[in-house]
Structures are given as structure tokens and as C-alpha cells.
Amino acid sequence: MEISGMESKSNLQHSLRKYKFVFLGEQSVGKTSLITRFMYNTFDQTYQATIGIDFLSKTVYLENRTLRLQLWDTAGQERFRSLIPSYIRDSSVAVVLYDVTNRKSFESTNRWIDDVRAERGDDVIIILIGNKIDIEDKRQVTTDEGQAKANELGLMYFETSAKSGVNVETVFVEIAKKLPGSETAIDGSDAQSNSARENQFSD
């Protein structure tokens, strides 16, 4: 009976449609914090730079099917940039973040978007996100500027606060609607995480 149960679980996991999300942007724009807020609804006040690439996965339940989102958290430091194209290459979604309190991080999004287009052409959903809107008094990039860039490049656009959680779930709900075959919103989820350096596909 135990073997049967394990097989049944394995079959369920393999039947899930998997979508690869890659998170891009300069160092300290909040990529890890955004993922953590979505996965666990928490925020870590202590900043730790991502080293290389980290991998997390989350199962989301739609009204008509279940999806596994594979979330690839990339380092923003220049010394890791050569690693990024190989992770973009087979992605379904590229999430490009900037910090609304840091104009340089906004200007650098063109570079990240160019990298995505070079690897995936039009076969990928690209999301532009202005993060850290909770620090409104230090904002350097207006909402209109972010939206204008997204409109110009044909991207989806959102502003979020990983710290407060504002719009974070909305981002993933709207992305889920755009994925092939998805026409409904996320209504629940379970999550698991691991380091890509240790075990990229634990399930």
C-alpha cells in the first residue's frame, strides 16, 4: 500500500504543467523579497545578496487545473551576469524588477529586457515591476514613467511593495491568467523551496 501511495503521488506531480519564471534586475531591487512574500507571505528585514541562482517552486491551484511555478531567483551582481542567459533560455515568464527609489536600476531594465529578447524573442511573457513603493518619499521613478516604458516595449507593468505585500499576489494572479490555458485566478497554493545549487528539481 505504501508503494502504491508513492506512485500515485509521483504520477500527480508529473501531471502538473510546469512554468519557469526567471527574476531579473540589479542587485538589491527586491527580487528575493518579492518571491519570499509570494511564497511565504513574509518579509526579511535583513538583506542578503543572492549568490548565483536560487530555485524555489510553488504549486498554484486554478479553478480548472493545477500548475507548478518554478521560480528562479538570479543574482544582480555583474560578476554573475554570464550565468543568466542559460536560465532565461527556456523560461515561460521573465520578471524584470527595478527599485522605484533608484533611477539607475530603472534605466538598467532595458539591458535585462534585451537579454530576454535575445534568448527568447517573443516566446516569453515579460513583466516589468517597480518595487519598494512603500518608500514613497524617496521615489525617483514615477508610475507614469514605468507604465510608459512598459507600453513602449509591450510589457505587463505593476508596482509592488515586497515589504508590505501590496500588489504581490496580484502580480502572480495576472501572470497566471496569461499562461497558456489559464483563464482564472489563483485561489490557493502550497510551496516548497530549495537551493538550485543543491537540487534543482526535487519533485
UniProtKB/TrEMBL annotation:
The keyword Nucleotide-binding belongs to this UniProt entry's keyword annotation: yes
Bias kind Polar residues: ranges: 190-203
Entry superkingdom: Eukaryota
GO CC, alphabetical: cis-Golgi network; cytosol; phagophore assembly site
Pfam families: Ras
Xref: SMART domains: RAB, RAN, RAS, RHO
Tagged with keyword GTP-binding: yes
CDD domains per record: Rab6 (cd01861)
One of the GO BP terms on file: retrograde transport, vesicle recycling within Golgi
Protein known as: GTP-binding protein ryh1
Originating species: Rozella allomycis (strain CSF55)
